[in-house]
Amino acid sequence: MDQAGRDDKLGELRKDVEIVIRRSDPHSPETPKDVVYAVPYREGMTLQSALDYIYRVLDPTIAFRPYKCGRGICMSCVVTVKGRKRQACSTFLEPGDHLLIEPTRGRPVIRDLVTSF
Amino acid sequence: MRARVFEQTMSSFDTIKCDVLVIGGGGAGCRAAIESASRKYRVVLASKFPVGKAGATVVAENFYVAPFGFADPEDSPEHYFQDTVRGGSFLSEQPLARRLATEGCNRVMDLERFGVRFKKGEDGKFFQMKAPGHSRIRGLSPVGGGLGIMRGLQRELKKYSQAQLHDDVMIIRILTDSNAVAGAIGLDIRKGRLIAIESKAIVIATGGYSTLWLHNDVPCDCTGDGIAMAYDAGADLIDMELVLFYPTVMIHPPSVHGVLVPSGILLEQVDAHLLNGRFEKFLPEKIPTRDVMNSLIYREIANGNATPHGGVFLDVSRSPLPKEELRNRLMFHLPEKYAYLLKYGIDMIQEPLEVAPMAHYTLGGIMIDSECRTRVFGLYVAGEAEGNVHGANRLGGNALPETQVFGAKAGEMATQWAREHDYVGFDPQEVEDEVKRMESLFELKTDSINPTVLKKKLQSIMWSQVGPERAESTLKEAIELLSRMKEQDLPRMAIPPTREFSLQWLEALEVPKMLDLSEMVAKAALLREETRGHHFRSDFPSREDETWLKHIIIRKERGEMKLWTKPVETIS
């Protein structure tokens, strides 16, 4: 088993999801910078609820769009997940997932995952 | 007149000048901005989140009431007015309900002009459906629901060069001079910098305050900012204790907690049932209004007939209709909601939904006359931020027309004020003082508290002590707890030094306003010693028409919160 495989296995055992956020800070010379967050998995967890958890519990400085329409149509929570454009509210997570999250491409980044529309 | 702010040289904040400032980027705010901009007045629309991804209109269901009388030729604005007043247990401010009833159809025609589509029958007329509490068939179905309406409003607004949209700007204080609007101070969330907006008139369209309750189905920006600001600026508030708890919001599984399932449409259009935990029906034959439905749900829960997670079942799967027909009707009436729950692995055709009442819409708000005026000159209100159009309950489908009818009127009135008056001007020192106050949030304190924690704490107090069921002892306890939060917790609130798009900063600005509003709701709920509509006092379980056909008014006087009652205004 390679390192990534072992990490995945460990994540699954701990029932954690690893969210890597490519954070941008207009004032930092080291931008963008990848930061890893371990989020305890909960059944039915979406990327939006994981971001919510990161903000509330792990790191209140994280910037993302918290608005939820509850119908999956407003596109406020769109981010790039593993290189593809996704709505965070309907991106479902599995225990042991390891995901790279970036802001939506092609739009000016304000900070972290927030872009202007 | 004082020195005008735009003439000063300053560096700690940015300045903008306009005729009319509209606060809030939902349906009411956009409609007000269109009205002013179309009359060639310079409008700034400041929205806490980007327009189209902000406020409650976006999440509104596909249900919009207007008494066209196509499905029922007997219908009229008069019938609609009477239904609204009766549905609100006669606590509606009737001149406002009258405006809603008489102008509803014209505002639908405006929306059509803006490119919003409504479902139509083969005869080309609006398709209309039945809804609980409405004596006639008058519900329209906007394509795409509230978001469909928002898209039309956004398109229309973009046509006017006079309208400047400021997304991600949270207005935090209204500035006045001699009880007239001078402008406002806001936070440019993207830049992390204060902004001063000088304007002749202001329209508040910031929506309701349902997020004061831990369990709610509204977007997180519905924190009632505009109502708290209007109170600080000297406007009166009305019936703050009245909150609509929507009967059927998902409580399980956790992934969809807080997702509203439209009971009216499901019960009327697909023959769904509301069942207790023993799968027994408990609604009468004629589907009741939402306040009555809630009281029946609470009775089942109190009698030990709750579902495993403490609610009831909204069951489409037991509908007598064939499954194919069910699917067709769901795809016609609720395509987005049905598809959304399917994404979460919940097929309402196959399994009952576990639902419970949660805070959904706030009936109280800023007191206005029928022309959207407040006590402050040049300050107007539209949409859910205004109170009390509906009374102690709002009929289904009445919120979207409220945004359009009062949005248009407030926009018209604000423009008229701007045409007839000059800028009042304000002292730049007021903005500098606000900048200093802001800076104190970033200072490290001993035992500092994060605003997210404070918000959750007040939401828990409001849900458990000022929630769907209220009594003197718990309300007094809540008032005590909230006042302790103000005295002990607020001074310790601190946020990290990050400035650009700081959600902590945003919440730190929301929390003090939410605490003020919570105190008002609890105090007014304690004062109203009766049960009416959604206000359920377990220690005063009956409706008291002799003593309580009254509004509760709240005003800030010399820094103190004053409450008193005023008889309901009726019209013949």
Write the layout of secondary structure elements.
The complex is a heterodimer of chains A (117) and B (572).
Chain A: H1 3-14, E1 16-23, E2 33-40, H2 47-58, E3 78-81, E4 84-87, E5 98-102, E6 109-111, E7 114-115
Parallel strand pairs in A: 1-5
Antiparallel strand pairs in A: 1-2, 3-4, 3-5, 6-7
Chain B: E1 13-23, H1 27-38, E2 43-47, E3 64-65, H2 77-87, H3 94-113, E4 139-140, H4 145-158, E5 163-167, E6 169-177, E7 180-188, E8 193-204, H5 225-233, E9 237-238, E10 243-252, H6 263-269, E11 273-275, H7 290-302, E12 312-315, H8 323-333, H9 335-343, E13 353-362, E14 365-367, E15 379-381, E16 386-387, H10 399-420, H11 428-441, H12 451-465, E17 469-470, H13 472-489, H14 503-527, E18 536-537, H15 545-548, E19 550-557, E20 560-567
Overall description:
The complex is a heterodimer of chains A (117) and B (572). Chain A contains two helices and seven strands. With 117 residues, chain A is of the alpha+beta class. Chain A has one domain: Roll (Ubiquitin-like (UB roll)), CATH 3.10.20.30. The model of chain A has no long low-confidence stretch (mean pLDDT 88). Chain B has 572 residues and is an alpha/beta fold. Chain B has three domains: 289 residues, FAD/NAD(P)-binding domain (3-Layer(bba) Sandwich); 111 residues, Alpha-Beta Complex (Flavocytochrome C3, Chain A, domain 1), CATH 3.90.700; 110 residues, Up-down Bundle (Methane Monooxygenase Hydroxylase, Chain G, domain 1). Helix content of chain B is 36%, strand content 20%. Chain B contains 15 helices and 20 strands. In chain B, the strands form five sheets. In chain B, strands 1, 2, 5, 6, 7, 8 and 15 form a seven-stranded mixed beta sheet that branches. In chain B, strands 16-14-9-19-20 form a five-stranded mixed beta sheet, with helices on one face. Chain B has a four-stranded antiparallel beta sheet with strand order 10-13-12-11. In chain B, α5 crosses α14. The N terminus of chain B is likely disordered. The chains are: A alpha+beta (117), B alpha/beta (572). The interface between A and B is large, with 34 and 41 residues.
